[in-house]
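user: can you give me the structure for this one chain? tokens are fine.
assistant: on it. calling the predictor now.
[tool input]
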Amino acid sequence: MIPMKRVVLVAVSLYAAAVAHGFGGEDLQYARENKAWALLLKVQQEGSGDVRQFLDRFLRTFPSGHHAVDAQFAMAEEHYLKGQFTKALPMYEALANGKDSTYTHDAWLRMAEIHYNIGDIPKAQKTFEKLVDKTGRTLVGAEALYGLALCFMHNKDYRQAVNTINRLVAKYPAYVNVPKIRELMGILRFEEKNYRETIAALEGIFTPVAAFYRGLSFFHQKQYQEAAQSFNTLADMPSSPYAEMGLYLKAECFRMVQNAGLTAQAYSDFVSRFPNSRLKPQALINQARALNVQGRVAEAMGLLRDLDATAMSKDAQINALYLEAEIAAQQGDYEKARELPAKAQRLLGKDNPERYARIHIILTYYLLKIGKIKEATIEMRELLRQIPLHPLGNVAHLLLGYGALNEHDLRTAISSFETSFLKYEYSPLSDAALAMMLNGYFEAGNYKGLVTHANSVMTVVSSEYATQDMRWKAQSQMLIGEAYYRLKMFNEASRFYEQAMEEPALAEQARLFLAWSKYHEGKFAESLRLAQKIMGLRRVGEENRISAHLLLASSYFNQGNYEASIDAFVGFRQNHPNNAHVPECWLYEGWAKRQTGAYAGALKSWKNLVAQFPNDPEAQDAQIQIGLLYFQARKYKAATQEFAAFLTRWPQAPLAPQALWLLAQTYYNSQDDASAIKTYRAFLAQYPNHKYTAGAENQLMLTCYRQAMRSKNSQQLAQFVQMYPKSQLAPEAQYQLALDAFQAKQWAPAIDHFRKLLLQYPASSQAPLALLSVAQAQERLSKRAEAILEYKSLVDLFPTHPASLDAGMRLGALHFAAENFKEAAASFRFVIEREAPPQIKSSAMFNLGMSRKKERNYAEAVEAFNSFTSAYPENPKQMDALLEIAALYRLMDMPDKAAQAYQMVLRRGNLTPAIKTGIYNQTAELYRGMGNKEKAVAYYSELIPLRPANMEERLLGLAQLAAIHEEDEAWEKALRIYNQIRISGGKTAWVQSAAKRAKEIKSYLRAKKTNPAMAAASKQ
């Protein structure tokens, strides 16, 4: 039961203030009580005394005081927090039923918690439910819901517990991150076997319970490293009751991953820390087993000798004897090993023959393992002497047959096997004998002899048994099914195995064979069902169980149930560590882990296989898979090491070509071109007719290409083109060869290389760029005529290629420079009519206008410039285009349109004073020429505020303005303008001329006043 968390409930102390007027008797009593209560609170806060004594004294002194109920609750809390529930409970009950309701709900909560902690779950649940209904949205209500969830969990009603926690979190959102709520939710998820969510819920909670359940969740998911870490955290909590179990389970984690060194040390740490633990005997046995695996036999035996039999259960004693028997058999001490079964038998008594038989079987197993077949047979006969009717009686004959079969004495082997299954009642071991007999026939390839023998067996059975037992007919069906199986005709094999299953004596073996046959048919659901049934049988032959176990794992794997297959493969290895299929299990276990995305686990499985079984063919496959995993993870250095290791260990293996191919591919992907080329060539030399040969040839070409391209070495590029002239990559290599020369400004060689590309690969995608580069190189050599021809070829041959835009622009520029303006205009028109980037098309349009202008085709020039200004209003050359338009209109004697163009320029803003000055002058001149003196004056007047004042063009315009004013006899205006010129700081001639003219005007004006006739003459 999860203990209820002890939460300190803060009592609200009520302090009363003394009244302003004097104290009466009651007031004095009240003041004394307040003072006593304040002193008591101070004692409680400082921990300077026994709070319960002070509370007791306070209650006796002030039994009905204002703080009596506070003291009663505090006293109850003191007992509760010290675990004195029997003392606390009546005090809480009195508070809950008293007239003062200050602590009613708090008291009910404590009562419920006490009922829970003393195991009265029904009463606790009832009280919590009552509180939930009455407390509303209060802290007590939240705690009541938490307690209610604990009660549901204690009663294993996990659904209700989860619902209650969800209700709590929904009602009190702040509780969602409270550690005890997360801890409880984690435990509930664990009970639901939802281990991933358990881990997530308990993450970041550092309590013993959280560490324990987090570790168990990792353990159930076979994440033993993470489990060990959690259990280690638990073991580091010395005050926790879970510390002992945490340290033991940490050792179990290392045992599960079969790390003998860590297992031995972990169990040693456990025994040192908890020498009186009830788990100590089993811990010492497990430590001894791990030491034995490490080869530290003397230490293992020392631990077994130190075991105190008086402190051990019978099971522990028997387990110790099992281990000691294994060690004795390993060391060849068969006499000692034989003594142990008798000792175990005395512990077991006569009521448990199976465990006694198991000890004999363990010994026999080790004898067989070291090749002591005769000794194993003697051991089995001894078992029969001790237990005459034991079903393993035929094992002796089975072993004799097995020995004869190993010596290729087929006749003796068949005779022994016949004795095995004819002398004794048919059993799973009879099936094993029959299977071994069939194996002899099949090894000899004597299928006819198999059928003949099957017929003779049926004859013997028919003549000897009056009951006409049909079991041997079923055996014949088994033999026929096995023959079909060996011929890989699995549909037919399954049909005969199914018939043989009708005979009870053969049902188990037939079911196993049928299961394998279904497996090979690809009917994995059926093979799985049959294998599970075999595994579930109580009495089944060891070989059959092993075979069924392997089939179970394989069926899960082929069904895509990889987690289940991993469990099955691991279980197979652990249950049958010396079986010939263990390497295969390691291999498939790695594949299953890889399928689930557990790549580190896959690597570990395959590396274990290679390390433990280097001479097994499966190790070669595992080595390849290790390299492939690194390859796919782009860890090419590691992949290279693995493939190279394969070729070092097994240079002549069937998988050696694949390893060499993958090594080359790894070099290629890691961009080690030199090593890749060397390895591809080695592959082609060794395996000229392999299925990877074509791929190797192609990859060699790709690698040579990449090496040449990356080297920027013209010799390598030329060599690649020479080696692979028909390759799709040859044009690119030739282009790069030419481009390198071009970029090095080796114009003549670049032209030669580009022309070779155009001659040998005219349809290549690089042809347009080659033509463009040839033309550009001709320009660099100042061969403009040749460049024009190349550009023209590009435009004519590839009018839609992007390179034709560059060609068109350069062609136009060259024609323009040669004053072939018509051809230049045609080239720029070509670019304009294509899909081109705005910057290119705008340049072409502007240049078209310039070409038409030079051609004196002013109307088309204006059209081009107008198109430019409309299409590209933000282009920096917008003002240049407008100025050109104005100039063209002037050339075309269209002053009004020229003036409009100038006005458009002025509206653009951000013009420099110099540009403004020119435009104002030009516009004023246009209007003056059109006889519009008023507008002329207006535009000239715009020059007055312009700066700098000394601009020559400004002064020229002002002089024109002054002249107009003089024509109109606006003498004062003329004087102001001349004064602007005089003070402008411009050229001396301009300043002096303006000053002189101003002086003359002034003289004229004075004369006009005194002598008008003379003034008129002066004006003339």
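assistant: here you go. Confidence is low (pLDDT under 50) at residues 5-24, 461-469. DSSP finds 54 helices and no strands in the chain.
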